[in-house]
Amino acid sequence: MDYTLLVKDCLKNKPAAQQQLYEHFAPAMLGVCYRYTKSMHDAEDVLQEGFVKVYLHLNKYKSTGELGAWVRRIMVTTALNYLKKNKRYREELVFAEMPLHPVSDNNPIIQLDAKQLSELIRQLPTGFQTIFNLYAIEGYTHVEIGAMLGISDGTSKSQYARARYLLIEWIEKYSSFSKQGQYAGK
Amino acid sequence: MQENNFEKQVQQKMEELRLTPPDEVWQKVAFAIAKRTKDRRILAIFVLLLLFIGSTIFIAIDHTTDKKINNTVSENNVDNRKINSYKNPADSANRQIAVVKSDPKTGIQTIPLDKVKNTRDVEKIPQHTSVPVATTKKEPARVISKKASRLHDATVSARDSGGINNKSAKLSYKTNKKVNVSIENSEPGDAISETDRPADSNKLAIEITNPPVNDVAVSGQLTDTVSKADAGVNTYLNDTLTSTVKTADKKEPSQKDAITQKQQNKWKLGFNFSFGATTTQNGYLGIIGFSNSDALKAFDPAPSNSTGGNVGQGTYSYTPSKIKTGTGITLGAFVQKNISPKTNILLGFNYKAYSSSITIGNKLDSFSTTNFNSTFYRTGSITKYKNYFHFIELPVTIQYKLSKQNKLPVYLSAGVTVSRLISSNALQFDIVSGAYYKDNSLLNKTQVNISLGFLFSLSGSSKNAFLIGPDINYSLNKMADSGFYNDRHYSYFGILMQKTIGKK
Questions:
Q1: What letter would DSSP give residue B113?
Q2: What is the ipTM of this complex?
Q3: What is the pLDDT of residues B244-279, one digit of tens each?
Q4: Burial track B143-168 (b if 16+ CB lie within 10 A, e otherwise)
Q5: CA-closest candidate to residue B406, choices B347, B469, B465
Q6: CB-CB neighbors (< 8 A) of B2 in chain A
Q7: Are B215 and B183 in contact (CB under 8 A)?
Q8: Which of B254, B247, B219 is nearest to B70 (CA)?
């Protein structure tokens, strides 16, 4: 899809173009927002706020970059700000220094679908969830994550290791329960 | 490597994640964008208006300061001249005066200094004012540096910088004033040396009168007076001539001018009347700032009110009528004052009536869900109903004269108005029951408006000016914070007529 014309029309405040841009990216971006929050309502709030930012800052978008990646970065930043601002997330986003947990060698084949996996990620404590999303999925380094969240890269590493350990454990459990047909939960 | 496999798997799975957001998210996004865009435009208009008012005030203050400086300087000079005459009565007889004569070929008027015998000639000329002459070498230089930066457009020039030594110090400039040059304490042929020159010698006074001449040039045969003066005197004279004539070019007010100025500075009474089209849409006249937020109004839940309508559930059976453009009139009185030759300030008191129209259905005799006193109408397109909004308002306007000519000038007018809604018959709409009803409590009573217009004078008399021109007006406040008129603004485009009343 050629975004150049679409972006130009959006910059001219054409509602049809703005809606087209939204409809093109909204499903994927809601998936991003969903991974960072604990409820669909919060995810929709982040999506809404993120898209408003997209339109307001669209003039800063350089056509050399990929528009999807640019929109995604805005969504991630908006989600992080939402977590920091929101009272119930703010309390959970306190990152405790913990000894660096050895990264598990366990490396299961993930047989879950995207929705099931995202549900498991959302079960992680908010701090773990955030760092896992940023490192494993968005591809940020621990130094970058440390700068984004105002923590040391060591804390980011240890939190990530802990999150990874928990998630693998849950995936294995989920997979085994699914095979046995006993797991009817998330 | 194994670790990376896990991350890659997670990444791939998450890339596949697609969730469909509900429609209301887009509606909220569209509404927010429209609001931000509109806010930006209003802010831009507000900033431009502030800049305009600020620059107008700056120009006005700057001009007033210049006038005060000139007047002060003028008064000081009159005093200095008198003191000098008392000190050296004998010297006054030896002054060389340049009197202006007309040259029929060039239209330039010149007279050599040596043709004038003494200062009594000067005193014969009526309505003269004098311009300062400093008694030391440093003072004139100061005056020049201060004034030269402001009076860059003065056409005065000392054509020959060595004019005194070259026997032809010549000044020419365009003004309505005659210039007389007198050299004190010097006689033709006198040699003035640095050592024997008294501290207050070589005083130069330029005296300005108001003869009916247009182009004036002063040619002073200054050589006769100070031909042997040293370089310091030369510089001094050049500087002083330049300084004083430039100051004179600022058009010192004569007694007549002062009276006229005084009259212009008085508050003048006037009346204004305006009529035109008015809308109650989102953005100015529904054009600027229009967004799809208007389309969302059908989804905008009316607030809970005494009609008891069960609103806000998101499912509506009725859509309200489109609000159409109406007419507007404004009439009132104002007082006007000149704050600078080009700028007027107007303070007024107006009555203003705006209207808009909707189509409604039959009148309802009773309305089951309400117990408060109002008339109700069904939805439909049977009757055209006019909503009237009556205001009183206090406008503050700045008018800036754009044209240089005094005959039929053009003014740019900008202002801020605070208005108060005094009554309205506007109908609100209950989306759930589909009924129109009156409830003025939903309307914002106080409005702050901005206005902009161009006014063209149709009469030459500035005292009794009749101005007419296009006028636009936009309310910065919303008409209402909720209900049918939520997020709408009053906007108006019309023809404004102004008439000031003054003594002829």
A1: G
A2: 0.84
A3: 444 444 445 556 566 556 656 678 899 999 999 998
A4: bbeebeeebeebebebeeeebbbeee
A5: B465
A6: 105, 107
A7: no
A8: B247
